Amino acid sequence: MLFDTALSGLQARVAILESVVEILSGLLAPPKLFVSEVVRGFRYENPDVRHFCLLKAVRAVSALNAAIELARKGYTQELAVLMRIVTECTKRIEYVLDMDDTEEHRSNVKTYLREFFEDIRREPEAEIKGVLIREERVNEQLGKTLDGISKRYGDTGERVPAAQLFYRSSRAFSFYVHARHPEAMDLYGGSPGRWHLRGMGQTPKDSENLEILDTFITTASTTFVIMVQGIPQLLELVLREPTLRQWYAESVGRIGPG
After folding, report:
1. pLDDT in tens, 109-125
2. What kind and span of H or E run contains 34?
3. CA distance 94 to 145
4. Nearest to 41 by CA among 126, 123, 131, 127
5. HSE of 248 in the Cβ direction (CA atoms, 13 Å)?
């Protein structure tokens, strides 16, 4: 019962993020359906950074909702794989909206957005695109910004560089994606020992899943605040809704200066 109650609380927090996605979607003209030899599916016409943020936000929220259902059945490994997706989507939203106003960063973002939206072909004969942007570049850029904020407010003690923390988080959850040795062995346990092929519900993993979900919902909320602040019209609409206004105020208070 307590576990189900905790999941319901997490679901309510994700519902707030769903509302932000819906508002941002409403600011944009709906995508159009294309059916041709090159493109089959919905696409936006003349997309820009707002469309990019929307797509990454949609993917992150969908992953969080799916992770809650996986947690309900105890699928810890599959939940961890989804958290890798949430990590990637949230970091890329922050990357394209980063406050660094250098010419190099503006150019990098412009190139990344262009390549992202040009990647539209999925027929068997289509060219396989390489990595659009290196994880190291995203980590270094966001790390530089966060370290600068910390320095500005005097937090320069024994602080681990933010880029290293970003890297560690991505790496930890990537191990689940690739079924590395310790992560795969984590599916074995119990008394007598056995392989858990249908989830690990009603084991200590339930508590771990709740902690992971809580952490990544908070991470996504922080990113959504950055997204709201980076799209002025979105901020205006969010502040009109009492529930979203409260979420925004609480999130900004949690994030602190900067």
Report:
1. 999 999 999 988 777 77
2. strand 32-35
3. 10
4. 123
5. 19
Q: Where are the domains of the chain?
A: 2-187+195-255
CA distance 61 to 173: 18
The per-residue pLDDT for range 2-53, each reduced to its tens digit, is 999 999 999 999 999 999 999 999 999 999 998 887 788 899 999 999 999 9
Structure-block tokens of residue 243? 């529930």
Inform me whether the pLDDT recorded for 147 exceeds 80. no
Interatomic CA distance for residues 164 and 153, integer angstroms: 20
**Residue 34 φ then ψ, to 5°:** -115, 135
- Residue tagged 């016409």 (tokens): 45
Paired tokens of 46: 């003349």
Task: Please list, in sequence order, all residues whose beta carbon lies within 8 angstroms of the beta carbon of residue 87, skipping any fewer than 6 positions away.
Answer: 169, 170, 173, 216, 219
Model confidence, pTM: 0.91
Q: 222 CB contacts (<8 Å, ≥6 apart)?
A: 90, 251, 254, 255
Give backbone dihedrals phi and psi of 172, rounded to 5 degrees, phi first. Answer: -60, -40
